[in-house]
Amino acid sequence: MQYRLHIDIPLGTNEEEAIYKSKLLIEEFFTDYSCAPVHILNEKYNITQANYRLGHDEDRQRSNYLDKDENDHVSNKKCRVNFIVEEESDVF
């Protein structure tokens, strides 16, 4: 059985603003390989991926507002970011 750490970050009541903030947070903390959180997760704890979704308190279906189709319907699939810090090599 896999244990998972769930972190709840309140992002306000405006859906568009919450989507925007979510994407910025994910990009800043999990896709910039020079960023400290990625190095800490990868090197210190051997964690190579994170699953995430954007929901709201009244939605009990675990919908993901970051994953919408062309009809603006949300899915219940989590988004995933993989991060593996590659060794930097000296280039001459």
Describe this structure in words.
The strands form 2 sheets. Strands 1-4 form a two-stranded antiparallel ribbon. It has one domain (15-82). The chain has helices at residues 15-31, 36-44, and strands at 49-52, 64-68, 74-75, 79-82. The protein has 2 helices and 4 strands; from the N terminus they run ααββββ. It has 92 residues and is an alpha+beta fold. 28% of the residues lie in helices and 16% in strands.
Q: Judging from the principal axes of the Cα atoms, what is the shape?
A: globular
- Helices, by number, come to 2
Total domain modules: 1
Pick out the low-confidence regions: none
Report on the biggest sheet: 2 strands, antiparallel
Order of helices and strands: HHEEEE
User: How many extended strands?
Assistant: 4
Spatial strand sequence of the major β-sheet:
1-4
Report how far apart the termini are: 47 Å
List keywords for this structure.
92 residues, two-stranded antiparallel sheet, two-stranded antiparallel ribbon, globular, alpha+beta, 2 helices
Describe the structure in brief.
The protein has 92 residues and is an alpha+beta fold.
Which helices and strands, and how do they pair?
Elements: H1 15-31, H2 36-44, E1 49-52, E2 64-68, E3 74-75, E4 79-82
